[in-house]
Amino acid sequence: MKTRGATRNDRILLWGLRGASVLASSIVLLIVYFLLAESLPALRRIGIARFVTDGDWLPSTAEGENQYRLVPMLAATLLSTLGAVLIAAPAGLLSAVFCHFYAPKALATLQRRIVELLAGIPSVIYGFWGLVTLVPILQRLAPPGQNLLAGILVLTLMILPTIAMLASATLATIPQAHLQGAAALGLSRWTTLRGVVLPEAAPGLLIALLLGTMRAVGETMAVLMVCGNVVQIPTSLFDPVRTLTANIALEMGYATSEHRSVLFVSGLALMALVVLLIGLQRQFRRSVTLV
Amino acid sequence: MSDCCFEACQSQRLPDPEDETFLAVRNLSVHYGAKVALESVDIDIQRGRVTALIGPSGCGKTSFLFTLNRLSDLIPGCGVGGRVRFEGTEIYSDGVDIGLLRANIGMVFQKPNLFPVSIRKNLYLPLREHGCPVNQLDRRSEEVLREVGLWSEVSDRLDASAHSLSGGQQQRLCIARALTLRPKLLLMDEPCSSLDPMATDVIERLILKMRGEYSIVIVTHNLAQAQRIADDVAVFWCHDESGCVIESGHAEAVFRAPKQPDTVAYLAGQRG
Ligand SMILES: Nc1ncnc2c1ncn2[C@@H]1O[C@H](COP(=O)(O)OP(=O)(O)O)[C@@H](O)[C@H]1O
Ligand SMILES: [Mg+2]
Predict the structure, then answer these.
(1) CA-closest candidate to residue A271, choices A238, A242, A232, A244
(2) What CATH code would you report for B14-116+183-267?
(3) Which residue, among B74, B62, B64, B145, has the nearest Cα to B109 in the 3D structure?
């Protein structure tokens, strides 16, 4: 009787799990399908080459002589992400390491709470803060103050808690036995970190970096508020830029026909970027876990 | 209060240690927060001998080992009282070089705890840390692997993950790793408890081979094993939830003619 009930519950659970995984994967497939379907007219009629070779971004001219240069937006996305990751990755990882291996307990707890809180702040708030605090400061350096640097700094603040929190969660999984083993051999904290903790935590730390990077790539509202939104390839940190995400948000409301389809193409480009990042992360993980 | 427990523990008191005593422990106590895990332990450990610590679980044998290389420093809330004198140095006095202490007192844990890197790196890490010249790393690694009888088994895959070894091999590599630093004293906490009888036998013979050359303190639950390998024995016991040493001395004497009634009961119970 009892075992029968148990097997029935098992079966219900199994079907529930199957259903959930089918649902999850079909949502991804549907999104990709719609992106492709909506981009297809542009890809067919305009062709990928023109997104690079066109002279400018003029998506809705009256004469129908539209130009669709996506390169400046792609550059803005890549540069703002790169800048933010270059600052936030070391800062986030170091803060997690400090928290776990160096900080006194009370300080570590306080820091963890603050980081958790920061990670939960909605991105529009970061944008708001950037606009009223950061941009005026940058304006004094180089008007108008809404520029690539502002975007990088706001993104840095957004992804730093993400990276620090996930890195911290990874470091918490290092078995006590390994730390005791290292201590029993008289290893210094530095050797323990490099020789024992890092190899063990590398995959998790990579995931932390990946999620932080993806958050920066996909961030829309905050960068839209502080970057100035001029379509151009920046030549300095003080040039205003427009990211792919900001472009979609700014223009989707009124875009029609071809223009609209091109915006979907830029969405597709964002997806491709994320897939590329995941691939790179896997490749990299394979090479670090083999040491 | 402590007098009463001292009575209950019936532990022997030893005179102040002489300078040439290898390892002298006096009035040692360990507590975790408010819980007293170990009380008034007096014991002398002799150089070049195998000392077995026996007794029921939870009587502070692991806690005792952890005080000897100050690994107890790592455990939050753990406090240690009393004296531990290792080769004339009070290890709980200020200014003790803990790194050096732990290089001199190696430890093997209950479960193999190899680092998640290659076999080679597991041995290099302590060697490098303690200043082994780069051109000596391989020679010293081979030496210790031969000592624990692993060389023929792993010489062709030193760069494989240490976790790809079997449990018994892992534990022997842990011993090899501890031996890289040529410790004067080796602490072993139930090194065979997670191993099958064959692997246990290999380790046991290894310990017999090391006796004389190394000084070893080993915790074991296996009385037959203790009888086979130990020169000296200390019996740990629990009184009112706190542990103490009720009897210690030459293995033969303790096993043949235990003085304490608890020891008699424990030995009889274990034998069946
Ligand atoms: N980290 C710890 N925190 C709190 N209590 C502990 C800790 N480690 C051990 N104890 C307690 O100390 C006592 C002795 O434990 P232990 O030294 O592991 O004994 P044994 O090795 O003889 O089994 C036990 O009652 C155990 O519950
Ligand atoms: Mg134990």
Answers:
(1) A244
(2) 3.40.50.300
(3) B62
- pLDDT band at residue B7 under the 50/70/90 scheme: very low
- In this predicted structure, the answer to whether residue B271 has a pLDDT above a threshold of 80 is no
State how far residue A205 is from chain B, nearest Cα, in angstroms.
Answer: 15
What's the gap in Å between B38 CA and the centre of ligand 1?
9
In single-letter form, the type of residue at position A102 comes to: Y
| pLDDT tens profile A137-164 | 999 988 889 999 999 999 999 999 999 9
Given the CA of residue B56, which atom of ligand 1 is nearest to it? Answer: 22
Claim to verify: residue A161 and residue A18 sit in the same structural domain = no
C-alpha B263 to ligand 1 mean position (Å): 21
pTM for this prediction:
0.84
Residues 6+ apart with CB under 8 A from A248: A220, A263, A266, A267
- Cβ separation A186–B111 shorter than 8 A: no
User: Euclidean distance between the first and final Cα of chain A, in Å?
Assistant: 53
Q: Is B97 left (phi over 0), alpha (psi -120 to 50) or beta?
A: beta
Three-class SS state of A94: helix
Quick check: is A117 in a domain?
Answer: yes
Beta-bridge partner residues of B24: B44, B85
Q: How many CB atoms lie within 10 A of CB A185?
A: 28
Average pLDDT of the segment spanning B108-120: 95
What is the total count of domains within chain A?
Answer: 2
Same-domain check for residues A6 and A104: no
**Does residue B17 register a pLDDT over 90?**
no
* Three-state helix/strand/coil letters over A63-85: CCCCEECCHHHHHHHHHHHHHHH
Question: Is A23 contained in some domain?
Answer: yes
Question: Chain B: residue nearest A291 by CA?
Answer: B117
Whether residue B54 has its Cβ less than 6 Å from ligand 1: no
Give me the pLDDT at residue B2, please. Answer: 41
- DSSP letter (8 states) at residue A20: H
Range of the domain at A155: 67-290
Q: Is the CB of B66 under 6 A from ligand 1?
A: no
Reported as a pLDDT band with limits 50, 70 and 90, residue B8 is low
From the CB of B107, is ligand 1 less than 6 Å away?
no
Closest residue by CA, ligand 1 atom 8: B63
Question: Is A13 in the same domain as A111?
Answer: no
**Are residues A33 and A168 part of one domain?**
no
Three-state SS for A232? coil
Q: Is B92 in the pocket of ligand 1 (CB under 6 A)?
A: no
**In this complex, do A185 and B121 lie within 8 Å of one another by their Cβ atoms?**
no
Q: How many residues does chain B have?
A: 272
What confidence category does residue B261 fall into, taking pLDDT thresholds of 50, 70 and 90? confident
Residue A269: closest CA among A42, A21, A11, A5: A42
